[in-house]
Design brief:
single chain; 611 residues; mainly alpha; Growth Hormone, Chain: A; two-stranded antiparallel sheet; 21 helices; 6 strands; 3% strand; globular
């Protein structure tokens, strides 16, 4: 039975600024698309730039890794800085730096110049990524609209990451390797003035000095952890000093960072967020989902190119169904979340992804296009469903004043999950692949040991051997890789089902809590800081001021165990899925007098449903 309950909300000007909030979302998504593209577009250009610049193996590793390492390590620093000095300001600076670094990278003639440019791209990306999500949080205070916006945001991120290899392959085939960077420049030149004109400025917790030492500790700690995870993914033993050293040092710095934040009166990140099961669980689900996505994508690319013999461009096209499915999941995510709630949505997303992974275990040494297409569609839809709902739940758990820090935590977990996916699933793949090459007839032990490093190296060794021994090694390597792929897929399915169990800690309903700490400071063209048109001296704040100006009736606030939800609410699904209804038997005025504090409503992070 459909029911509509209307509660008058605050004027839209307070959140939308001079531009329509959906136009703001479009600008944010374009910038996010470029950052996501840059994370993967270089992969297909590596052979071409290697031939041109002749970097050493170490330099080549840094060319590829400088961007994700620097970006991941600085997310918390710039996310919390945006809360203090203004998220729009940090975002616009990130636009400019990203465009300049792209030009330097495209025209680089030395490996060292390209490494420096990639590092600057990482700095720009770290400025852009948390700022887009925290501005989105400020522009869409209503959770139902915010869920739609986050669905679009996560879909754009998935599209960018998946489109990177396709676009990169096209550009490298028709131009030169530097063109993969040049594409950023005209788009950044477009969105920089648009962002300055259309995006509202917003700040969060501005009390007290910014903790510079704490920000540097967080950056160094995350850098150490990501570097250690990446070295493990490259095949280094976990207990080796180059792997264990950065991991232990990074973990120690992060522990010290958390202890420092707990003692400070004005911390960079409110560590109490992690005491809320819904927030912590959402972060864990993001890590698991990215672990599965990036790890499986890497292995799938090797399978398509080395086993099936597809070109990089053909490989990118084969992965497009995953992208389209992710777009569909993002487009329908808000509707689904309102109907089934975060717990079921994240859990079902993990289960659907596990089913897709198990379906892909039927892949063999011969091409099965229909099987791959169905598997990639289910994989993309399931993972995007999980990521969307986890991001939405995580961001909704944080008050607006801490949105930058919360967004930075989410993006850091995204990067850590990606690195862990390569390390963990890559290690499983190598462990299952190597035994298949231990005793190939006619192949010397040294050649077998070299072939066990990777399938690509096995093909090189087989070509060098030639004859019957080379053919036998080539066939054995293909067979061993497919067997290792199956083992890796089963391990992935187990991890995904673990994520489905974790999701039971999320709230059963989509609560719509009122921010307990009040609205953050938002400045937009033509408006006072309070969001009321006119000079600042004429602005009136608070519910009493709104009523005095005749702008709105008092907003319905929350009740104990019941979340307040401004604006019209329509529910045709299960009544327990959306906890935004006004309690029966209570007048609007009696509801409005309830204090909007965490103590006055069911804690959003408690994991308990509203009644």
């Amino acid at each position: 039975m459909s029911r509509t309950i209307t509660a008058q909300g605050p004027p839209r000007a307070a959140v939308g600024g001079g531009a329509n909030r959906w136009v703001v979302l479009l600008v944010l998504c374009v910038s996010l698309l470029l950052v996501a593209l840059d994370a993967t577009i270089l992969h297909v250009a590596v052979p071409s730039l290697t031939e041109d610049l002749r970097p050493s193996s170490t330099a080549l590793l840094w060319i590829v890794d400088a961007y994700p390492l620097i970006c991941a390590s600085l997310l918390i620093l710039f996310g919390t800085l945006g809360d203090r000095v203004g998220r729009r300001r940090v975002l616009l600076l990130g636009y400019a730096l990203f465009g300049i670094a792209s030009a330097v990278a495209a025209l680089a003639t030395e490996p060292s110049v390209l490494i420096a440019a990639r590092a600057l791209l990482g700095v720009g990306g770290a400025m852009i990524m948390p700022a887009t999500l925290s501005i989105l949080r400020a522009v869409f205070p209503d959770r139902r609209e915010r869920a739609t916006a986050i669905g679009v945001w996560t879909a754009v991120a998935a599209v960018g990451a998946a489109t990177g290899p396709v676009l990169g392959g096209f550009l490298v085939e028709h131009y030169w390797w530097g063109s993969v960077f040049l594409i950023n420049i005209p788009l950044m030149a477009l969105i920089l003035p648009l962002g300055r004109r259309l995006l509202p400025e917003s700040r969060g917790a501005a009390d007290g000095p910014w903790d510079v030492l704490g920000a540097l500790m967080a950056a160094a700690g995350v850098l150490g952890c990501v570097l250690g995870v990446k070295r493990a993914g490259a095949g280094d033993p976990f207990l080796a000093l180059p792997t264990a050293g950065p991991l232990l040092l990074g973990a120690a710095l992060l522990v010290l960072f958390v202890r420092r934040q707990r003692r400070r009166p004005h911390p960079l990140i409110d560590t109490r967020l992690f005491s809320r099961p819904a927030f912590t669980t959402s972060v864990g689900c993001i890590v698991l989902a990215m672990l599965a996505l990036v790890g499986l994508e890497l292995i799938a690319v090797q399978y398509l190119q080395l086993v099936l013999g597809l070109t990089p461009l053909e490989t990118g096209l084969r992965l497009l169904p995953l992208t389209f499915a992710a777009m569909a999941a993002g487009a329908t995510g808000s509707y689904t979340l309102r109907r089934v709630g975060p717990r079921r949505m994240v859990g079902w997303g993990f289960v659907l992804t596990a089913a897709a992974v198990l379906l892909l275990t039927f892949m063999g040494q011969h091409d099965r296009p229909l099987l791959l297409t169905v598997g990639f569609v289910l994989l993309g839809f399931g993972l995007q469903t999980t990521l969307f709902s986890a991001y939405e739940s995580m961001l909704s758990e944080a008050p607006q004043r801490s949105a930058g820090g919360a967004a930075a935590i989410g993006e850091t977990s995204y990067q850590l999950g990606a690195g862990m996916g390569i390390a963990l699933l890559g290690s499983v793949m190598n462990a299952a692949y190597a035994p298949g090459l231990a005793a190939v007839p006619g192949v010397p032990a040294e050649a077998s040991a070299a072939a066990a490093n990777s399938l690509g190296e096995a093909y090189q060794v087989a070509d060098q051997l030639g004859g019957a021994a080379g053919g036998a090694l080539h066939q054995a390597a293909r067979h061993a890789f497919v067997d290792g792929l199956h083992v890796t897929l089963f391990v992935s399915a187990g991890l995904l089902l673990l994520g489905a169990v974790m999701a039971r800690r999320l709230p059963r309903v989509m609560e719509c809590p009122v921010d307990p700490e009040g609205p953050e400071e938002t400045a937009v063209p033509g408006l006072s800081k309070q969001g009321v048109a006119g000079p600042p001296e004429q602005a009136v704040t608070g519910l009493q001021g709104q009523a005095a100006q005749g702008l709105a009736e008092p907003v319905v606030q929350g009740l104990p165990g019941r979340a307040g939800c401004p604006g019209p609410v329509e529910s045709s699904g299960p009544p327990e899925a959306v906890a935004c209804a006004e309690p029966s038997g209570l007048s609007r005025s009696s509801v409005a007098r309830v204090p909007a504090t965490r103590e006055a409503i069911e804690p959003a992070g408690s994991g308990r449903p509203a009644h």
